[in-house]
Amino acid sequence: MENIDQQNQKLSFKENWNVFKFIFKFLLPFKKYFILAFVFSVVTTILASVMPFVISNFMDSYLETEKATDQIIWYFAILYFVLNIINSIAFFFKWNYLQNGSIFVNQYIRKKVYAKLHTLGMRYFDQKPTGWLITRVTNDTDLFPFWQMLFNTLTSIISIVIAYTALFIIDHQIASVMLIFLPILLAGVLIYQRVSTRVYQLMLKKRSELNTKLNEYISGIRIIQQFRQETRLGKAFDQTNEEYYGYRKRVIQINGLLLSPLVNFLMSVSIIVVLIMFSDRSMHTVVAAGLIYAFISNVQIYFNPISNLMDSLSNFSNGLVSASRIKTIMEESEYAPTYKPEPEDIAPDLAVTNDKNGPIISQGKIEFRHVNFSYDGENQVLKDISFVVHPGETIAFVGHTGSGKSSIINVFMRFYEFYEGQVLIDDVDIKTYSNEELRKKIGLVLQDSFMFVASVTDNIKMMNPKISDDAAIAAAEFVHADGFIRNLEHGFDSKVIEGGAAFSAGERQLINFARTMVREPKILLLDEATANIDTETEALIQLGLSNMRQGRTTMAIAHRLSTIKDANLILVLEAGEIIERGTHDELVEMNGYYADMYRLQTLQKEV
Ligand SMILES: Nc1ncnc2c1ncn2[C@@H]1O[C@H](COP(=O)(O)OP(=O)(O)OP(=O)(O)O)[C@@H](O)[C@H]1O
């Protein structure tokens, strides 16, 4: 994880520019909001610069000359009041458009990143800690301050130009002196940016680490408690938390030291310079007090945006760091299938029809041709796997734990990309099928399935509105899950609590069967449950399974050999290689590894 974060810490100017262009594209669909906010912002800036002139005019033309009648006082009071009201209204609209625009862009980015994650293969998720991913989708997509900063930069430049024009109109000589402060301020801005960005990035890295640790601790809480790891992990968590706090404190210190004090100091110096220059001028000529007031007001308007800009400058660099991480995720393609089979790879002898997404699976014939596979590119997990399963037949994989049984399923489901060998369905390369078609036609039944917080029916339908409640109930009946469901207090409408904790492993398995069958898959992949299931539920499961297998091509991982005696082909795996193949009777006759396993299991059963 450290490497992942470090990658983004030192970006060259060109890389930053690319990141900026990338993230800016997300803003375009919402540009209307930002343009309107900009228009209202210009209105408020012009009004803020003009209002001191109203006061200065009143002071110089009426107060000093003692000509201020009631009528004139009212006139100026109302004018000032109206300008203030207009200013407030313009400010409200500017604020509103800017906030809404930023919220919409963030939401849009989050939606896109979330959708992208769904297209990435399992290998990606193996390598990225969940907490890291959560930080990316939640914190990194929260670019609110970044958009504000961009907007502030633009409006600040306009403010500086307008305020400077006002200064120039009042007194171009003194206004010219004000220009000296600009490079000094810019130098301050650059120094601040350098110092703050580094510390800010370290702080962000710690926050990401904190999230990762928290996620690990919560997901592994059972093991942690069982092995009494609370104190050790608590200490590790405290340490990261302490480091995070340390960086946070440094950020606050840097901001406190460099931000407003520097700008305020320079503003005070400039006001003193202005006063000295006006006093000097008053030696030779009359200087109107209102003019000095208008000048000083505009000096403040001239400095304020710079102060704001510095304030949010760190947001800019942080936003770019976050944006670069989003860019990395959005441009991730390594795990997405890129392989396009050569025409000669495909030798269809089954009639295959196509729809708009590509070929569709109609028969369910499966073939593996010399497939090699590795998760990490180093350790070969599957070696030269070849077999054929004809439509409606069952193939079973047996072997010790870690022999590669689940990996065959992983490759077949395209959870992981493989690069050597070929897998075909209905004689068509699996890589030509759309993922949608594969997910639709292949029903995967894992040992333990995830249950959502929803009703039993919705868990069977998996919230798919196209599936009717009746179909869900029919599927439950088909796999014999209806008996126990109807015995629940609210039957099919009973609420499932998180993870399905209120159901036994066998009951969850039965719901899972129904969930698979309601989609009417052509191919079934079964990972036989190893959990202890009571004999009654076990009998239901076996009944459900045999119903499910009728007329479907089935690939089953079997732990108890008694359940796959009738399979058309059994493959015995050892360290990723097929060491024996045949039907149950053939393998027993062969008197090899399978026969040993079978004898052992029969003996255990008898004992
Ligand atoms: N996501 C992964 N990343 C890296 N290696 C993996 C991954 N999943 C499995 N492996 C490794 O691949 C090898 C084969 O594992 P696989 O899960 O296919 O075995 P299996 O026969 O299904 O075992 P079991 O019966 O315990 O489920 C093992 O050495 C395992 O450590």
Automatic annotation (TrEMBL):
It is found in: Cell membrane. GO terms for molecular function: ABC-type oligopeptide transporter activity; ATP binding; ATP hydrolysis activity. Coiled coil: none annotated. The keyword Metal-binding does not apply. Residues 366-600 form the ABC transporter domain. Pfam families: ABC_membrane (PF00664), ABC_tran (PF00005). The chain crosses the membrane at residues 33-52, 72-93, 149-170, 176-195, 257-278. GO terms for cellular component: plasma membrane. Its main location: membrane. This is ABC transporter ATP-binding protein/permease. It comes from Lactococcus fujiensis JCM 16395.
